[in-house]
Amino acid sequence: MEQGIATWGTPIELLERHGPGVSSALFIAVVGWTAAAWAARSVRSLGKKWTQVDATLIPLLASVSRLTILTVTTMAVLERFGVDTKSLFAVLGAAGLTVGLALKDTLSDVAAGLVLLVLRPFDVGDAIEVDGTSGVVDAIDVFQTRLTSFDGVPITLPNSKVRSAKIQNFTRAQRRRMDLTIGVSATADIAHAIATLRDVLSSEPRVLPEPAPSVDVVELAEGKVNLLVRAWTLPADFFPARLELTRHFKERLDAEGIVVPIPQRELHIPLREPERRSAPFL
């Protein structure tokens, strides 16, 4: 006991020696903790008013602001206790570099996710195509983007792949153009066929009048003439109108006696005359 008092001093001496530092450290800790909580609440509150920022980004910004203030507070408290924060920063920097190299792909996904959430090339509910993968956006997370394909299959894409790929947003298009190739018999009356297809287009209410739809010869193929039909619709009407027009084209062409040829091959196999056998010599 006496040896401990001789080494550390009496409680009063300890309080006189370390009291101011402990008091200031506690004060800094309380203020920093309070400021961190206030900053997180403020970001969440302002996030409800920032309509241009995706709602998924608000919790992340709140966490980042809170952790930043807590980190600065922790460093200030350690300095009050005489800890060399420069050495601590060096150790943390080396550890961060090691972790960063190990989690390179994950950090790339996080960075790409932040860019997607800020730039917003698409929103939840948009129909998009990313590098050949199509579907409706279900969620945009920090690490990945989740879609549901048009045939109902869930799709998960890493944000880094989405960010670097070509993105087509069908929902944001003001209108979409459909191209349909209709083949008619090479002996058919082309003018009559074109007039028939144009009449079908004019009777479809989902086809926009401007730009005007068009029908013309696009190719002289083997045994048929291909007609290219181009028409514009609203994005929501694209697939229903395309399916309906395809059916109506076939029905009207049949009704008008215009043949839509089916690819076929005719094989002609010549029959060889039976060889005459000479009678055996007697």
Automatic annotation (TrEMBL):
UniProt subcellular location: Cell membrane
Keyword Transmembrane helix listed: yes
Transmembrane region(s): 20-40
Ranges where the Mechanosensitive ion channel transmembrane helices 2/3 domain occurs: 65-104
Alphabetical list of Pfam families matching this protein: MS_channel_1st, MS_channel_2nd, MS_channel_3rd
Membrane topology: Multi-pass membrane protein
GO annotations of cellular component type: plasma membrane
MF annotations from Gene Ontology: mechanosensitive monoatomic ion channel activity
UniProt xrefs under InterPro entries: LSM_dom_sf (IPR010920), MS_channel_1st (IPR049142), MS_channel_C (IPR049278), MscS_archaea/bacteria_type (IPR045275), MscS_beta-dom_sf (IPR023408), MscS_channel_2nd (IPR006685), MscS_channel_C_sf (IPR011066), MscS_channel_TM-2 (IPR011014)
Keywords assigned: Cell membrane, Membrane, Transmembrane, Transmembrane helix
Keyword Isomerase in record: no
Occurrences of domain Mechanosensitive ion channel MscS (ranges): 105-172
Residue ranges annotated for the Mechanosensitive ion channel MscS C-terminal domain, each copy included: 180-258
Coarse class of the protein's main subcellular location: membrane
Classification via PANTHER family: SMALL-CONDUCTANCE MECHANOSENSITIVE CHANNEL (PTHR30221:SF8)
Family label: Belongs to the MscS (TC 1.A.23) family.
Protein name: Mechanosensitve ion channel
Species the sequence originates in: Sorangium cellulosum (strain So ce56)
